[in-house]
DNA sequence: GCCAACGTTGGC
DNA sequence: GCCAACGTTGGC
């Protein structure tokens, strides 16, 4: 099984939205590398950190679970959608999506800053400069450390 | 709002 | 196939 980090702007869709919706298709990924991770590597049952970008602080704020195989992202065919792609056809879809399900919201967000300074989190790809991918693999070790930190209330976690 | 880091596009 | 121009992302 694999572990992931799913990045999204908090103002667009937050962990609270995720909690309310329970299960959503993770639509709108329009980057080949991110798509390839989703289409080729994500499996049902994989877990992902839910990460708020453009937030204060930018942080992992919860966990979601992958609950479908990849399938064509319907928004690529929808002219009215922001993510409409005129190059995509139903016969040859360009973009994929998986469904994700809410698992938990962290008691304490684990900030990007923490990921950068904690010795046991060194090397996470999300901390690398210029890392703009919205779908990133996370090692099992890093995932478990962050999940444990997030689930306890601690003045050191922020 | 700024700007560095990337990805994509399109002319050649 | 190169590369300049342009657009987007996202931390700060």
List keywords for this structure.
4 helices; two-stranded antiparallel ribbon; about 20% helix; DNA-binding; ph1033 like fold; alpha+beta; 6-stranded mixed beta sheet; about 160 residues
Summarize the structure in words.
The protein is of the alpha+beta class. Helices cover 22% and strands 29% of the residues. The strands form two sheets. It has a six-stranded mixed beta sheet with strand order 2-7-4-3-1-8. It has a two-stranded antiparallel sheet with strand order 5-6. The model has no long low-confidence stretch (mean pLDDT 93). The structure holds a DNA duplex (12 and 12 nucleotides).
Give the quaternary arrangement of the chains.
single chain
- Report the total helices: 4
Task: Briefly note the CATH topology name.
Answer: ph1033 like fold
Q: Which structural class is indicated by helix and strand composition? A: alpha+beta
CATH class reads Alpha Beta
What Rg, in angstroms, do the CA atoms define?
16 Å
What is the percentage of strand-forming residues?
25-35%
Count the strands?
8
Portion of residues within helices: 10-25%
Task: Indicate the overall shape.
Answer: globular
Q: What count of domains describes the coordinates?
A: 1
Uncertain regions: pLDDT < 50 for 5+ in a row?
Answer: none
What strand line-up does the widest sheet have? 2-7-4-3-1-8
């Amino acid at each position: 099984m694999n572990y992931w980090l799913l990045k999204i702007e908090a103002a667009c869709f937050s962990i609270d939205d995720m909690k309310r919706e329970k299960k959503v298709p993770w639509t709108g990924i329009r980057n080949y590398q991110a798509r390839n991770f989703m289409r080729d590597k994500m499996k049902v049952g994989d877990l992902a950190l839910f990460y708020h970008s453009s937030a204060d602080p930018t942080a992992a704020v919860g966990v979601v679970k992958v609950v479908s195989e990849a399938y064509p992202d319907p928004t690529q065919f929808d002219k009215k959608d922001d993510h409409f792609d005129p190059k995509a056809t139903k016969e040859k879809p360009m973009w994929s999506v998986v469904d994700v399900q809410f698992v938990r919201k962290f008691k304490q967000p684990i900030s990007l800053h923490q990921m950068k300074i904690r010795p046991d989190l060194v090397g996470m790809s999300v901390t690398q400069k210029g890392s703009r991918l919205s779908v990133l693999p996370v090692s099992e070790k890093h995932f478990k450390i962050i999940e444990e930190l997030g689930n306890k209330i601690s003045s050191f976690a922020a």
